[in-house]
Automatic annotation (TrEMBL):
Family: Belongs to the peptidase S54 family.
Name of a matching Pfam family: Rhomboid
Record field: transmembrane: 164-180, 186-203, 210-228, 234-252, 259-281
SUPFAM superfamilies xrefs: B-box zinc-binding domain, Rhomboid-like
Boundaries of every Peptidase S54 rhomboid domain copy: 120-250
Gene3D superfamilies named in the record: Rhomboid-like
Record's protein name: Rhomboid family intramembrane serine protease
Amino acid sequence: MEQQAVTCYRHPDRETGIRCTRCERPICPDCMVSASVGFQCKECVSQRGGSHVQPRTIAGGSVAADPFLVTKILIGLNILVFILVKAVGDRLLNDLDLYAVCGHDITGQQLCFGVSEGPGEWYRLLTSAFLHQEYWHIGFNLLSLWWIGAPLEQRLGRSRYTALYFVSAIGGSAAVLLLAPDAPTLGASGAIFGLFGATAVYMRRMRYDMRPVLILLGLNIFFSFTWANVSWQGHLGGLVTGTIVAIGMLYAPRERRDLVQWGTCAAVFVASLAVAAIAVAQVTS
């Protein structure tokens, strides 16, 4: 027997798995107000004179006046770096993109480039995620960032969304170093695939229909493996790290929510750096 979907009592078109802890009516994220235990609907909060209660996102973040500010800043940074690349030329690309390769010159001396050159080059793990060379590349990535990232920022809150984005970017870079260390790699795709993974986790957490996001994710994975000059390694690394971080954020128990959320971010970040360090050690050896 098919189970009937539960929808928000104020928005019948939105499925949800969350109920008000006082009246037990089903509520969607737009109708939730964080309480001492769980979430309450806005009517229950107003009835108990709870205007002092700070509205929270599903992940426990503060509800901001501009819920898309971080996404706008990320888009602006990518556009700014793209303009600088066009103005300065390939020299900036060579200084900021991601690759770890070592070789020998005609005298037999070993020469290393990228993060393999030394600790001073590890900034490439992050700067490569803000580099784009082709117009179609930055256009596609920034459209995806707005379509996927903006709603996710609204649901998670600024600080958690920012952590998710940057940890996913580092995770994507680490995967590239491990699986394709000699390939110059750039682009925000690793971080964006982390947002795709987080969106899937959010949809599952809220018991929404998973089919649209799974179809979209499947198409992107398919193109990652079939299009030429596309770093499937970075996409895979970002997807895995973003999914893990999102699970920690959205399924954290309320009693220890901050500890679990930020502990998960820190653990995934450290694990990504460890993978990168292993990859560099393999190249330099």
